[in-house]
């Protein structure tokens, strides 16, 4: 009988528990790296998207300002007027930058023909006009890490 116990080939319970613990540790380490990579990818994708939106919106507004014959900013709205009395009003509403396109009335208001959403990823929008110098500041919403992207554009109007 003593010879039968020595000839058994197999694993003891302790060997099995140690093997499971080692494999579990390896799987946990791999999972941790994978999850970290996925979160980092998502964060960077959001950051890149925010940067793209801020740049695109800034470029569009700057282009329209250069075309306008009159530029005003008050109460969070930039008002552009063209020589043919058409105009665009840009304003921010709950992280959404909106453009109203229309025709100016004799009372210096605008009859809106249509409205367009330029971006829904804008956290702040400000315009400062001093003489012929226009400064546009646009900041994105936060990414998952609480970071924002801010772009300041300076324009000098030609006479």
Summarize the structure.
The protein is of the alpha+beta class and 159 residues long. Helices cover 38% and strands 38% of the residues. The strands form two sheets. A five-stranded antiparallel sheet has the order 1-2-3-4-5. Strands 6-7-8 form a three-stranded antiparallel sheet, covered by helices on one side.
Describe this protein's structure.
By secondary structure, the protein is an alpha+beta fold. It has one domain. It is 38% helix and 38% strand. The chain is built from 2 helices and 8 strands. The strands form 2 sheets. The protein has a 5-stranded antiparallel beta sheet. A 3-stranded antiparallel beta sheet has the order 6-7-8, with helices on one face. The mean pLDDT is 89.
Structural class: alpha+beta
Total helices: the number is: 2
Low-pLDDT residue intervals, each spanning 5 or more residues: none
SSE topology string: HHEEEEEEEE
Radius of gyration: 30 Å
Mean pLDDT: 89
Shape: rod-shaped
The end-to-end span amounts to 109 Å
Range of helix content? 25-40%
**Mind describing the biggest β-sheet?**
5 strands, antiparallel
How large is the share of residues in beta strands? 35-45%
Query: Care to count the β-strands?
Result: 8
Number of structural units classed as domains: 1
Strand order of the largest sheet: 1-2-3-4-5
């Amino acid at each position: 009988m003593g010879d039968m116990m020595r000839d058994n080939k197999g694993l003891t319970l302790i060997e099995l528990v140690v093997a499971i613990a080692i494999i579990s540790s390896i799987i946990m380490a791999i999972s941790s790296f994978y999850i970290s990579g996925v979160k980092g990818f998502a964060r960077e994708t959001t950051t890149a998207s925010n940067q793209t939106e801020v740049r695109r919106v800034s470029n569009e507004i700057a282009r329209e300002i250069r075309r306008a014959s009159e530029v005003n900013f008050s109460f969070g709205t930039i008002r552009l007027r063209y020589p043919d009395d058409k105009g665009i009003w840009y304003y921010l509403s709950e992280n959404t930058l909106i453009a109203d396109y229309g025709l100016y009335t004799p009372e210096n208001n605008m009859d809106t023909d249509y409205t367009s959403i330029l971006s829904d990823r804008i956290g702040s929008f400000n315009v400062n006009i001093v003489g012929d110098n226009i400064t546009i500041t646009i900041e994105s919403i936060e990414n998952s890490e609480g970071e924002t992207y801010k772009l300041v554009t300076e324009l000098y109007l030609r006479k």
